[in-house]
Known about the structure:
- The protein is α+β, with helices and mostly antiparallel strands.
- The protein is 30% helix and 25% strand.
- One magnesium ion (MG) binds at residues 101, 103, 112, 114, 211, 242.
Amino acid sequence: MAIRLKSRKELDLMRAAGRIVHEVHNLCRDMARPGTTTREIDDAAQALIDERGARGLFKNYPTYQPGEGFPSTLCISVNECVVHGIGNDRPIEDGDVVGVDCGVQLNGWCGDAATTILVGHVAPEVVTMCEATEHCLQIAIDQIRPGKRWSQIARLMQKYAEDRGYGVVRDFVGHGIGSTMHEEPKVPNFVSRELLKNDIHLRAGVVLAIEPMLTLGSREVKTLDDGWTVVTLDGKASAHYEHTVAVVEGGAEVLTDGR
Ligand code: MG
Ligand code: MG
Protein backbone atom coordinates (compact mmCIF):
# COMPACT_ATOMS: atom_id res chain seq x y z
CA MET A 1 0.00 0.00 0.00
CA ALA A 2 1.67 3.18 -1.21
CA ILE A 3 0.92 6.19 0.98
CA ARG A 4 2.24 9.37 -0.56
CA LEU A 5 3.92 11.50 2.10
CA LYS A 6 3.47 15.27 1.92
CA SER A 7 6.12 17.92 2.44
CA ARG A 8 5.68 20.98 4.65
CA LYS A 9 5.03 23.07 1.55
CA GLU A 10 2.36 20.64 0.35
CA LEU A 11 0.67 20.67 3.76
CA ASP A 12 0.49 24.46 3.56
CA LEU A 13 -1.11 24.22 0.10
CA MET A 14 -3.63 21.72 1.48
CA ARG A 15 -4.34 24.08 4.38
CA ALA A 16 -5.18 26.84 1.87
CA ALA A 17 -7.75 24.51 0.28
CA GLY A 18 -8.95 23.57 3.77
CA ARG A 19 -9.53 27.22 4.62
CA ILE A 20 -12.09 27.47 1.81
CA VAL A 21 -13.81 24.30 3.04
CA HIS A 22 -14.01 25.89 6.50
CA GLU A 23 -15.49 29.06 4.99
CA VAL A 24 -18.11 26.98 3.19
CA HIS A 25 -19.03 25.28 6.47
CA ASN A 26 -19.51 28.69 8.10
CA LEU A 27 -21.69 29.81 5.20
CA CYS A 28 -23.81 26.66 5.55
CA ARG A 29 -24.13 27.20 9.30
CA ASP A 30 -25.41 30.74 8.67
CA MET A 31 -27.88 29.60 6.01
CA ALA A 32 -29.26 26.40 7.59
CA ARG A 33 -32.57 27.75 8.95
CA PRO A 34 -36.13 26.44 8.74
CA GLY A 35 -37.52 27.26 5.30
CA THR A 36 -34.18 27.34 3.47
CA THR A 37 -33.70 24.54 0.96
CA THR A 38 -30.54 22.49 0.70
CA ARG A 39 -30.36 23.48 -2.97
CA GLU A 40 -30.11 27.15 -1.96
CA ILE A 41 -27.26 26.27 0.39
CA ASP A 42 -25.58 24.22 -2.33
CA ASP A 43 -25.80 27.09 -4.85
CA ALA A 44 -24.34 29.55 -2.34
CA ALA A 45 -21.48 27.14 -1.60
CA GLN A 46 -20.70 26.82 -5.31
CA ALA A 47 -20.65 30.63 -5.67
CA LEU A 48 -18.21 30.96 -2.75
CA ILE A 49 -15.93 28.23 -4.13
CA ASP A 50 -15.95 29.96 -7.54
CA GLU A 51 -15.19 33.31 -5.94
CA ARG A 52 -12.13 31.82 -4.22
CA GLY A 53 -10.85 30.38 -7.52
CA ALA A 54 -11.15 26.82 -6.24
CA ARG A 55 -12.87 23.76 -7.68
CA GLY A 56 -15.48 21.69 -5.87
CA LEU A 57 -14.44 18.04 -5.80
CA PHE A 58 -17.85 16.41 -5.57
CA LYS A 59 -19.80 17.84 -8.53
CA ASN A 60 -19.75 15.37 -11.43
CA TYR A 61 -17.82 12.86 -9.31
CA PRO A 62 -18.04 9.78 -11.49
CA THR A 63 -20.38 6.95 -10.69
CA TYR A 64 -19.62 3.32 -11.35
CA GLN A 65 -23.05 2.71 -12.81
CA PRO A 66 -24.25 4.21 -16.09
CA GLY A 67 -25.55 7.73 -15.69
CA GLU A 68 -24.53 11.12 -14.47
CA GLY A 69 -21.87 11.96 -11.92
CA PHE A 70 -22.70 13.45 -8.54
CA PRO A 71 -25.10 16.34 -9.20
CA SER A 72 -24.39 18.86 -6.43
CA THR A 73 -21.46 20.81 -5.01
CA LEU A 74 -21.87 19.64 -1.42
CA CYS A 75 -23.05 16.41 0.02
CA ILE A 76 -25.98 17.61 2.13
CA SER A 77 -27.31 14.78 4.23
CA VAL A 78 -30.38 15.53 6.37
CA ASN A 79 -31.51 13.40 9.37
CA GLU A 80 -31.57 9.70 8.35
CA CYS A 81 -29.34 10.47 5.37
CA VAL A 82 -25.83 9.37 6.35
CA VAL A 83 -23.71 10.66 3.44
CA HIS A 84 -23.88 11.69 -0.24
CA GLY A 85 -27.19 13.57 0.02
CA ILE A 86 -28.00 15.79 -2.96
CA GLY A 87 -29.16 19.41 -2.57
CA ASN A 88 -32.92 19.55 -3.25
CA ASP A 89 -36.04 21.68 -2.84
CA ARG A 90 -37.23 20.30 0.48
CA PRO A 91 -37.13 23.15 3.01
CA ILE A 92 -35.11 22.53 6.15
CA GLU A 93 -37.34 22.10 9.20
CA ASP A 94 -36.91 22.93 12.87
CA GLY A 95 -35.26 19.93 14.54
CA ASP A 96 -33.36 18.74 11.45
CA VAL A 97 -29.71 17.76 11.57
CA VAL A 98 -28.01 18.79 8.35
CA GLY A 99 -24.75 17.07 7.45
CA VAL A 100 -22.60 19.19 5.17
CA ASP A 101 -19.60 17.63 3.44
CA CYS A 102 -17.38 19.82 1.27
CA GLY A 103 -14.25 19.04 -0.70
CA VAL A 104 -12.32 21.56 -2.78
CA GLN A 105 -9.12 21.66 -4.79
CA LEU A 106 -7.03 24.83 -4.91
CA ASN A 107 -3.75 25.14 -6.81
CA GLY A 108 -3.73 21.38 -7.27
CA TRP A 109 -4.22 20.41 -3.59
CA CYS A 110 -7.31 19.18 -1.78
CA GLY A 111 -9.19 19.72 1.47
CA ASP A 112 -12.19 17.66 2.60
CA ALA A 113 -14.27 18.13 5.75
CA ALA A 114 -17.78 17.55 7.03
CA THR A 115 -19.86 18.83 9.90
CA THR A 116 -23.40 18.28 11.12
CA ILE A 117 -25.50 21.39 11.72
CA LEU A 118 -28.25 21.24 14.35
CA VAL A 119 -31.25 23.35 13.33
CA GLY A 120 -33.49 24.64 16.10
CA HIS A 121 -35.01 22.19 18.55
CA VAL A 122 -33.21 18.92 17.84
CA ALA A 123 -34.25 15.83 19.84
CA PRO A 124 -31.90 15.47 22.83
CA GLU A 125 -30.80 11.95 21.87
CA VAL A 126 -29.83 13.22 18.43
CA VAL A 127 -27.88 16.14 19.93
CA THR A 128 -25.97 13.68 22.09
CA MET A 129 -25.22 11.44 19.10
CA CYS A 130 -23.88 14.42 17.12
CA GLU A 131 -21.64 15.35 20.06
CA ALA A 132 -20.41 11.76 20.31
CA THR A 133 -19.58 11.68 16.59
CA GLU A 134 -17.61 14.91 16.82
CA HIS A 135 -15.87 13.50 19.90
CA CYS A 136 -14.83 10.39 17.93
CA LEU A 137 -13.12 12.69 15.43
CA GLN A 138 -11.44 14.54 18.30
CA ILE A 139 -10.21 11.23 19.75
CA ALA A 140 -8.42 10.58 16.47
CA ILE A 141 -6.89 14.06 16.36
CA ASP A 142 -5.71 13.76 19.97
CA GLN A 143 -4.27 10.28 19.48
CA ILE A 144 -2.45 10.72 16.18
CA ARG A 145 1.33 10.73 16.36
CA PRO A 146 4.16 9.18 14.39
CA GLY A 147 4.81 5.59 15.42
CA LYS A 148 1.19 4.67 16.14
CA ARG A 149 -0.89 2.30 14.08
CA TRP A 150 -4.32 3.46 12.89
CA SER A 151 -6.01 0.35 14.34
CA GLN A 152 -5.06 1.55 17.84
CA ILE A 153 -6.96 4.78 17.20
CA ALA A 154 -9.88 3.23 15.31
CA ARG A 155 -10.39 0.88 18.27
CA LEU A 156 -10.77 3.84 20.66
CA MET A 157 -13.20 5.61 18.31
CA GLN A 158 -15.28 2.47 17.85
CA LYS A 159 -15.34 1.72 21.58
CA TYR A 160 -16.41 5.26 22.47
CA ALA A 161 -19.32 5.05 20.01
CA GLU A 162 -20.43 1.50 20.74
CA ASP A 163 -20.19 1.90 24.53
CA ARG A 164 -22.86 4.59 24.11
CA GLY A 165 -25.05 2.38 21.93
CA TYR A 166 -24.41 4.06 18.59
CA GLY A 167 -23.94 2.26 15.29
CA VAL A 168 -20.59 2.71 13.56
CA VAL A 169 -21.25 2.70 9.81
CA ARG A 170 -19.17 0.01 8.06
CA ASP A 171 -19.94 0.70 4.40
CA PHE A 172 -18.11 4.04 4.19
CA VAL A 173 -14.70 5.01 5.54
CA GLY A 174 -12.19 7.85 5.47
CA HIS A 175 -9.27 8.02 3.06
CA GLY A 176 -5.86 9.37 2.28
CA ILE A 177 -5.93 12.76 0.55
CA GLY A 178 -3.46 15.00 -1.27
CA SER A 179 -3.39 16.25 -4.85
CA THR A 180 -6.43 14.02 -5.40
CA MET A 181 -9.35 13.62 -3.00
CA HIS A 182 -9.20 9.86 -2.60
CA GLU A 183 -5.76 8.33 -2.09
CA GLU A 184 -4.50 5.30 -0.24
CA PRO A 185 -5.10 4.22 2.48
CA LYS A 186 -8.69 3.47 3.47
CA VAL A 187 -9.31 4.89 6.95
CA PRO A 188 -12.06 2.95 8.76
CA ASN A 189 -13.68 4.18 11.99
CA PHE A 190 -13.66 0.63 13.32
CA VAL A 191 -11.26 -2.29 13.56
CA SER A 192 -11.67 -4.86 10.82
CA ARG A 193 -9.68 -7.96 9.91
CA GLU A 194 -8.69 -6.11 6.75
CA LEU A 195 -7.25 -3.22 8.77
CA LEU A 196 -5.34 -5.50 11.14
CA LYS A 197 -3.88 -7.35 8.17
CA ASN A 198 -2.87 -4.13 6.44
CA ASP A 199 -2.56 -1.55 9.22
CA ILE A 200 -1.68 2.10 8.62
CA HIS A 201 1.65 3.03 10.18
CA LEU A 202 1.47 6.70 11.02
CA ARG A 203 4.49 8.83 10.22
CA ALA A 204 5.10 12.49 9.51
CA GLY A 205 3.68 13.49 6.13
CA VAL A 206 0.76 11.05 6.10
CA VAL A 207 -2.47 12.98 5.50
CA LEU A 208 -5.83 11.37 6.22
CA ALA A 209 -9.43 12.50 5.80
CA ILE A 210 -10.90 11.08 9.00
CA GLU A 211 -14.69 10.89 8.98
CA PRO A 212 -16.66 9.07 11.67
CA MET A 213 -20.31 8.33 10.81
CA LEU A 214 -22.55 7.23 13.67
CA THR A 215 -26.19 6.18 13.74
CA LEU A 216 -28.77 6.35 16.49
CA GLY A 217 -30.04 2.87 15.69
CA SER A 218 -28.70 0.08 13.51
CA ARG A 219 -25.47 0.71 11.58
CA GLU A 220 -27.00 -0.76 8.41
CA VAL A 221 -27.43 1.63 5.49
CA LYS A 222 -28.84 1.51 1.94
CA THR A 223 -28.42 3.63 -1.19
CA LEU A 224 -31.55 5.21 -2.70
CA ASP A 225 -32.58 4.84 -6.35
CA ASP A 226 -30.78 8.08 -7.28
CA GLY A 227 -27.59 6.01 -6.96
CA TRP A 228 -26.04 8.34 -4.38
CA THR A 229 -28.10 9.14 -1.28
CA VAL A 230 -27.16 6.82 1.57
CA VAL A 231 -29.73 6.48 4.37
CA THR A 232 -30.00 4.40 7.51
CA LEU A 233 -31.99 1.23 6.90
CA ASP A 234 -34.11 1.86 10.02
CA GLY A 235 -34.74 5.53 9.21
CA LYS A 236 -33.10 6.75 12.42
CA ALA A 237 -30.85 9.79 12.48
CA SER A 238 -27.16 9.79 11.66
CA ALA A 239 -24.23 12.20 12.11
CA HIS A 240 -20.99 12.76 10.18
CA TYR A 241 -17.94 14.84 11.03
CA GLU A 242 -14.69 14.99 9.07
CA HIS A 243 -11.37 16.79 9.02
CA THR A 244 -8.34 16.54 6.78
CA VAL A 245 -5.56 15.76 9.25
CA ALA A 246 -1.79 15.60 8.74
CA VAL A 247 0.51 13.48 10.89
CA VAL A 248 3.40 15.73 11.95
CA GLU A 249 6.28 15.41 14.42
CA GLY A 250 4.72 15.18 17.87
CA GLY A 251 1.08 14.79 16.83
CA ALA A 252 -1.62 15.90 14.41
CA GLU A 253 -2.21 19.06 12.43
CA VAL A 254 -5.77 19.73 11.31
CA LEU A 255 -5.75 21.29 7.84
CA THR A 256 -9.47 22.12 7.59
CA ASP A 257 -9.98 24.10 10.83
CA GLY A 258 -9.82 27.49 9.10
CA ARG A 259 -6.44 28.52 10.45
MG1 MG B 1 -15.85 14.68 2.88
MG1 MG C 1 -13.81 12.42 2.78
